[in-house]
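tool=predict chain=A
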Amino acid sequence: MKFNDQKKLYRQNALTQSDIQYFPDSRDLDVTVVSGTCADIIRRIHGAMSRLAPMGDDERRSLWFEVRGKRWEWYRLSVSTYKDSHYLYITGDTYDHHVFCDKEDCNSHHCFYEDELVGIFSKVEKYVLGLVDNILSEPEQYNSYVEKYLSYYRREGLIKRSILNSLIPDNRYDGIDIPQVINLYENQFEPTQFSEMTLRCYMHYWRIAYEAVYGKMSGDDIEVFQHSSKGYEIKEYHLDSEDDFRRWKNNVSPYHGFDVVYARVHLYPTYTNGQWHFYVGTGSYWNLDDCFRAVVGLSDAEISVELGEVDHVLGILKETDYVEITPYAYRYMQDDDIGSQMKLPYAYEVDKNVIKKIIANTNWNKIERVSPLA
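tool=predict ok
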């Protein structure tokens, strides 16, 4: 079948972007619960999709489809079943995320304008029924079409950081002595030990790390520590009492009490074998530069610390790891040899030839294949 014929086949009864955007958004694990006619339609969509083989846990089945707008955009529709509840997911890029369920869910909230959604749910049902019919008539034709034409902005893959940095230089560490940082992470010294730890002592070293990130601050240590997420709570503790420090530590541990950069870079006091020392780490790739500044600032003050994420950090700085290209890129460092994630850049961000080279040098994941139910 020719491309234009394929295109017509899979775009029959196509949805529009305004259809999709009319759905209520879901954030994180939020689920919109619908009832009545909308719930019935979701169950019928499940029935149509059940003609396809399951593709994951909870009887998940997924289809890529194109949506009409200023240009044709790719979206993904998935269904799954969990504890007799039927779920329907429609996802596009980071900002298009819609999850529906026909029964209560622990993260659910009810939709207050279900009657207005019946028309769009009906359009989705009609489109899915037709698409499943077309797929079942020639499943390999559909799989080949998606594999060939699915936008790279909807795909995921890995690229070597060394290649990516040669195409898009990483300047996030400008002004940081990277050879010094590599030396600190490669040749970790025994952390500086403290026989006693008090709030007054902790605030002093927290200030060194904080000023290494944000620059010199006016005022004494207590005033500067007010910039901490838990600095305002120190008034109820004796600043020179280790017992009060332990009490403060326990009280603020669950609430970002040791953050140099809020929720991202931490100066954590650790007690081992009768001695205190500091741990500095971050799980956020986006805040590595802040973490490095804190580590270097403490080192320049002759304070050695226990370091976190050592393998990831060295892989990133030596460019021996991989970057994951994904439409859902987030700040956190990943598992194994994947140091970070990023979205495929757009033409308004970098030269089009750079985008082509990134695509050519990325090992793209295979698209899940759709097959009839055995």
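The two ends are 25 Å apart (CA to CA). The longest strand covers residues 73-82.
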